[in-house]
Amino acid sequence: MKKQITLFILLLFSLLTFAQQDEIPEYLQYEKLTKKVNDIQRTANGKRIKGEGLDAQLAVPEINFIFNYHNLSTSWVSGNGEGVREIVENMDLAGVNDVFLSENQFGEVGCVIVSFSKKQKYTLINNGKITHQEIESIPFYFSLAERLKGKAIFDAIAELVYLSKVKKRLLTAQQAKQHQEKWKMTMSKNTEVAYTDFLRDVPNSLFGRMASANVEYFRQMTLASTNILRLDKLVTDGIYTYEDLDKLRTSIKHYLETYGAVDVAKSKGIQDISSKLVSYPKSKQEFDEKAERERKIAEKKRKKERFDFGGFGYYAGVKSPLGFSFIGGGSKLGFGVDLRIHPGWKEKATFEENIAPSVFTQKKPRSFAALVTMTHGIVYPFYAFVGAGYGSRTADYEVDPSLGINDNKLTVVESKGIETHGGLLIKAGRAFVFRAGISVNNFKPSTKEFVFGFIFSYL
Length: 459
Known about the structure:
The protein is an alpha+beta fold. The protein contains eight helices and 17 strands.
């Protein structure tokens, strides 16, 4: 029996030893995280803090964050060089709702804001005068000269809070780990979709406020980018007014002041847009003058676009029924090439050919014309065209086979040499241009023919 009691005591002692060994690393973890928060806050010492009605030099004591492991509470101490000391004692870290890395710039410092589910007792000592209040949120400052410290203090505080929640059995260790791993994964993706998914999947985490702020950031970024793009394109159409421009400039300025100071990389897109807006008018009069100038330029451009044409199409004459045209034009000079032919279809010879019809009963008229053409706008939708090139007009006459004449063919060259033409083009909408005119060869009136055609314009 005595031996059994001895063994039981040894077993109990071993269990106690193991329990103590299990607690020592946890205590050291709290101590390490507390020291990290304390040291990072110390980087804000001597820095100027600025805000609404506030401009002072921070006086952060060497010991500014104290953790009590036995009741899992902390005390926070800060102040400024004007005789002000702020103290919050016995904060219950397990009661923290969210930890938020503010993107506001407070002079030379940034801060992480810790919010509680219950109000905390706050003591203010101002030049010896003591007042007590209750507050829901506490700022942890860091120097903006060391911006990465912001994320480090944010992570340290969040880990302390999760350890406390697990210790008080408000969360399981597995749940705390899942929250932190999900947040780390979301931060690595850094997209609006990722933060939205995080809010949906982990609705009660410490990072909810941070996720919501990042979702808002990306929405503002998209809106600002869209607006600046539209502003670039549509100000000349009168869709944007000076009030719209001023509102956009004000909203971007507010956004940068609210979110853009701490995370420079993330806010770079908005800053680029803000820099671009510097070149835009600063007053309504300046805006109206610029808009009027741009409207005139745009109107001139629209007229030019309306006047311009270019494309290909059919071009022929009474004596040359087949043809092709590739041509362009506008308010000023335009150029093109034209081709017309008659391949030589048989037709009945007539008295007008000045050859005895009783002998030559059939003919094959052939013609060819290749020209370089120049166009010039007159007044919309009319254009003039003239051109020159080479052309020929010939005809093959055949004797009636029943006459039994051996040499039964005769080729007559009516004219060949310089081919010229001229006339008008009329634009019908954006897609079609019709043309008509006169063409002659070697300037002989007898060779003139009426020419016509249409063009499919792709401009």
